[in-house]
């Protein structure tokens, strides 16, 4: 464990709180981002349309411009959302109507272009479209409060495979060139399909329509030198009545806990992300329970940890317990793609380094070829026999109820005693770890660095309002920095050059060069 950042010093450490108006972006980087320190920010980033996001029903849909887009909505399982959840295609007005009618079993979370039901449902003898489908390998999809690593744009060697003529003509392709801004690592023009993909991956549905809005900041000044990875919206609904909390002592391995927690909140499950997060609650309340990357060995991750970098980013080994995994650098870049980038852009590499990088690329290509020849379907291998997605390596096996023993005590002291014995047997040392707990409300933000484990409990708002049970948040995700330099937070230009293509796509969209 090479983590060198901030660690909580008390059994329950208070998360520092600062005023947005009292700090510059450079100070914020030096005092929190560089130190890998979570912090609550009182205030919301300038130009953020908080009032528009709080609109009800039709006005909210109209603001987003998302009336007709298909969304992938999770259905509650085992008392919570996230890993193992089924996903259903639904339009935003339909989801809001369910919430309005008191149906609290749905959650809108991270959307992925590749989450196509025809790809993900098991084959069937009839033509009926199943009502639910699993979701692809990622890090956000497994939880209502996390980010996808595999979906990080890593496209230097893949985009624009149809190469144009030197004069910029389209040649044989029906994928027209929209910009001649070249990336040195691929010398490929920006084509229409890539431009659309980059916009939709950066500003996810149902927010995509805001990519052209001057009212919605895509790159907040507070984290201006970090490279944005994704912006998304999460939305769910909670009953105000506390659910019954029980244990099943006949199940010695899990106590039948699942994702259930005492009280009336809904749990994300304990997990970590592979990107830095600026979290903005808009409706309802959120409670974060947070553990440092330095404690990862005691947090019972699904995956076998390969390495914890100095900035807290966690890399995993391949293994039978996990879905397919590719090693990542400390800035989140896939090791293989970073090697390709270095080979293509650095003419001054020493022979030994060049040979090492070529070996990395060749091994990956050999693995991909072997998989193709074997007929293996790595996508389907990520699901169990019931076609429910397996837990990702970044999830903890620790039931979230064990994070809230004080609330269990308030309900039933005898149950707490049994849970403590269960925790000490199955997760030794966990109950003794230092943690941070923060209650977050609209008008505040939370900065959470990559690699910090967290469980998020969501609560609704005013029960007397039409959408009073609703909880809603917007997330800005950033590639984790791997230097302490505010002006140059990444050790090389890998992500900077990649984001130049995304920025060009956003510019062209706003100029009317294409429509989504």
UniProtKB/TrEMBL annotation:
<dbReference type="Pfam" id="PF13621">
    <property type="entry name" value="Cupin_8"/>
</dbReference>
<dbReference type="InterPro" id="IPR003347">
    <property type="entry name" value="JmjC_dom"/>
</dbReference>
<feature type="region of interest" description="Disordered">
    <location>
        <begin position="157"/>
        <end position="184"/>
    </location>
</feature>
<dbReference type="InterPro" id="IPR041667">
    <property type="entry name" value="Cupin_8"/>
</dbReference>
<feature type="compositionally biased region" description="Acidic residues">
    <location>
        <begin position="120"/>
        <end position="130"/>
    </location>
</feature>
<feature type="domain" description="JmjC">
    <location>
        <begin position="205"/>
        <end position="493"/>
    </location>
</feature>
<feature type="region of interest" description="Disordered">
    <location>
        <begin position="120"/>
        <end position="143"/>
    </location>
</feature>
<feature type="compositionally biased region" description="Acidic residues">
    <location>
        <begin position="157"/>
        <end position="175"/>
    </location>
</feature>
<protein>
    <recommendedName>
        <fullName>JmjC domain-containing protein</fullName>
    </recommendedName>
</protein>
């Amino acid at each position: 464990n090479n983590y060198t950042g901030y660690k909580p010093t008390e059994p329950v450490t208070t998360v520092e709180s600062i005023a947005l108006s009292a700090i510059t972006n450079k100070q914020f980087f030096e005092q929190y981002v560089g130190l890998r320190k979570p912090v609550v920010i009182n205030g919301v980033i300038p130009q953020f349309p908080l009032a528009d996001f709080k609109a009800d029903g039709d006005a909210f849909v109209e603001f987003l411009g998302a009336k007709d887009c298909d969304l992938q909505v999770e259905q509650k399982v085992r008392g919570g959302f996230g890993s193992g959840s089924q996903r259903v295609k639904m339009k935003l007005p339909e989801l809001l109507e369910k919430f309005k009618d008191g149906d609290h079993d749905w959650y809108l979370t991270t959307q992925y272009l590749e989450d196509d039901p025809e790809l993900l449902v098991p084959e069937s003898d009839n033509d009926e479209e199943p009502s639910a489908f699993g979701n692809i390998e990622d890090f956000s999809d497994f939880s209502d409060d996390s980010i996808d690593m595999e979906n990080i744009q890593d496209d230097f060697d893949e985009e624009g495979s149809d190469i144009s003529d030197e004069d910029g003509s389209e040649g044989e392709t029906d994928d027209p060139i929209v910009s001649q801004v070249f990336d040195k690592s691929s010398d490929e023009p920006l084509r229409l399909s890539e431009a659309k993909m980059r916009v939709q991956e950066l500003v996810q549905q149902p927010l995509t329509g805001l990519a052209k809005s001057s009212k919605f900041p895509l790159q907040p000044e507070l984290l201006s030198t970090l490279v944005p990875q994704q912006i998304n919206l999460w939305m769910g609904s909670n009953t105000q009545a506390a659910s019954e909390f029980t244990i099943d002592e006949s199940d010695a391995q899990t106590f039948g806990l699942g994702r259930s927690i005492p009280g009336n909140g809904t749990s994300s499950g304990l997990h970590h992300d592979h990107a830095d997060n600026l979290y903005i609650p808009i409706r309802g309340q959120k409670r974060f329970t947070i553990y440092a990357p330095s404690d990862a060995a005691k947090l019972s991750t699904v995956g076998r940890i390969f390495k914890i970098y100095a900035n807290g980013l966690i890399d995993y080994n391949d293994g039978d317990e996990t879905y397919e995994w590719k090693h990542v650098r400390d800035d989140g870049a896939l090791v293989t793609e970073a090697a390709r980038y270095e080979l293509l852009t650095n003419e001054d590499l020493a022979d030994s380094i060049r040979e090492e990088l070529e070996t990395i690329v060749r091994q990956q290509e050999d693995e991909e070829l072997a998989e193709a020849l074997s007929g293996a379907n790595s996508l389907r291998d990520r699901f169990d026999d019931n076609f429910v997605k397996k837990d990702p390596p970044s999830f903890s096996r620790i039931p979230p109820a064990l994070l809230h023993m004080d609330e269990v005590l308030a309900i039933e002291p005898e149950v707490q005693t049994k849970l403590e014995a269960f925790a000490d047997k199955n997760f030794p040392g966990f109950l003794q770890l230092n943690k941070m707990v923060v209650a977050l409300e609209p008008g505040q933000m939370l900065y959470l660095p990559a690699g910090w484990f967290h469980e998020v409990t969501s609560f609704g708002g005013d029960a007397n309002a039409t959408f009073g049970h609703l909880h809603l948040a917007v997330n800005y995700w950033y590639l984790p920095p791997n230097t302490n330099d505010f002006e140059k937070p990444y050790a090389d230009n890998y992500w900077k050059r990649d984001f130049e293509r995304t920025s060009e796509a956003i510019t062209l969209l706003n100029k009317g060069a294409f429509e989504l």
